[in-house]
Amino acid sequence: MKIPILRIPYSNKNISNIKNGITKIIKSGQFTMSENVKKFEQKFASIIGTKYAIAVNSGTSALEIIFRSLNIQNKYVIVPTNTFMATPLSVIHAGGKVIFCDIDKKDLCLSYNFLKKKIKKKNIAAVVIVHIGGIISQNMSEIITLCKKNKIPLVEDCAHAHGSTYKNNFAGNIGLAGAFSFYPTKIINSAEGGMITTNNIKVFKKSLIFREHGKIDSLLNYHTELGNNWRFSELHALLGLEQLKSFKKIIEARNSIANFYYKKLKKLKDIEIINLPKNTKSGFYKFIIIVKKKNTSKIKKIMLEKFNIKLPGEVYNFMCHKQPVFKKNKELIENFGEKLPNSEEIENKQLCLPLYVGLKSKELNYIIKSLEKTLKIV
Question: How many CB atoms are closer than 10 A to CB 22?
């Protein structure tokens, strides 16, 4: 049996609709920022529950635009080190500097205790919460309260969190603004693209300006901000609209697979499972396990070579604060060289199992049995 790293859930009906939609787009001559983009924004906002949604060309752009809207230039943004490099880089490209924060080992999200220490520093413009793998922090309530007390905006990196909820509020509708990615591996994809969600009118208006080269009006050659070309195409919006038709089914399917893993993996003594905190639900972008006293690189190699199972990327196996680029740019990081022990301990212990719509019971059983055999070999 062969288990690929990913299958993207476009049905034959979806594909037929997309073909027809492409024909309409070509005939209309409107390839960017037209009716499909507007519909995609409106539909996404209605699902997440925010007043506004702004479609952009990537999740990274979504983050940078939010930070530019908050005017973080020459200020600090607190970012968990356990995230993709897009998160800190978007801060830097928006003119800010990064304070890396450790994580909580129970949920792999921003450490509340570490945050309490760092938030006391001067000139902090924002705190970023990354819903890693679709998990919302067990300390979400305390983090929200701490940010409000210090009058610091909480920005959500929702690249992993389509369909995740906290107290029945969707990710992207918890902090001041949320940034989503629609990269092909994501729960909802449009080949490329991103979305800003917010209830804040200032962030909304600023985002529209930044998205269009800093124009206050897209039809006028009049620029008020240092924006960029962060527009979203009609073709990508078309893909996204088809995905949103199945949003609920996609989340249910991923939860069904995750529940299968939870039940079957309990018997394995060599691993720990990351359980969901109370008052939260997950879209399960990833199913994360912690491997005890085993070499995860060898596990991945055996799973691929012996059992033909390609495991998806970890979250994350090389923490941001240790990335070599920061050795050359130490001035961009407030706490360069600081040890973040929880993150550094977890990076070599965690693995992610295949999880995508279309995985069948026999495939899941094969994955679990293969993992069990592999753990005995390593």
Answer: 14
Give the model's pLDDT for residue 294: 87
Per DSSP, the chain holds a count of helices (H) and strands (E) of: 12, 13
Name the band, by pLDDT with cuts 50, 70 and 90, for residue 261.
Answer: very high
Helix axes 12-28, 234-244, angle to 10 degrees: 150
- Residues in Cβ contact with 113 at an 8 Å cutoff, skipping those fewer than 6 apart: none
Pairing label, strands 124-130, 154-157:
parallel
- 126 - beta bridge partners? 77
Q: Could you please report the per-residue DSSP string of 197-240?
A: EES-HHHHHHHHHHHBTTBSSTTSS-B-S---B---BHHHHHHH
Euclidean distance between CA atoms 350 and 347, whole angstroms: 6
- Tens-digit pLDDT profile for residues 180-197: 999 999 999 999 999 999
End-to-end CA distance of the chain: 21
Eight-class DSSP state of 133:
G
Say if residue 39's pLDDT is above 90.
Answer: yes
Dist. CA 60–CA 91, nearest whole Å = 10
| Angle between helix 234-244 and helix 247-265 axes, rounded to 10 deg | 60
